[in-house]
User: Fold this.
Amino acid sequence: MNVLDIMRTGPVIPVIVIDRLEDAVPLARALVAGGVRVLEVTLRTPVALKAIEAIANEVEGAITGVGTITQARDFDSALKAGALFGVSPGLTPELIAAAKDSALPLLPGVMTPSDVIAARAGGFTELKLFPAQQAGGVGMLKALGGPFPELRFCPTGGISAATAPEFLALPNVACVGGSWLTPASAVAARDWGRITALARETAGLSNTAD
Ligand code: 3PG
Assistant:
């Protein structure tokens, strides 16, 4: 799958933080049971790569990716863990070079028009707008659609169940990301039923981007 296929499969990508390795598989199963298959597990905890490996090996139907890629070496680690895609909060020449050398499809982060121009020059046409709400939200994405109509975005950061539909209605938004499907309180309590219920709430959401 390429990045656009993965984004369209969303169209909501949960941003997941795993603190306890034993939570990885049940949490991923809870999301998949609710119809959310594209999962971004962030490299923010010591167990993140092991969590990705466990989900990739054990959770049928999951399309597992690595989030918070910030260094070239993350590409290899992600592939070894079985990740099918990567997401970065920003983009640097080092990351562009690493992405070109790697089989891991990358959804890179941008926040400004200059970031967008640099990412497009690096060969990327699917971009994560991060942090989306703080960068201007729906108004920012409409404005970016003027000079960059061919680009597709995955806004992430500050989006909720209530605001996701406004983003997904934009012609340049292929998916949205966020942590609202995996609230820290539900994960801490291992309340997988709540996570499945939150995932199910996204069932009616679809993107309008082509
Ligand atoms: C992140 O990287 O943490 C994501 O952008 C999630 O942001 P959110 O918690 O505002 O959804």
Notes: The first helix runs from residue 3 to 9. The chain has a mean pLDDT of 96. The domain at 3-200 is CATH 3.20.20.70 (TIM Barrel).
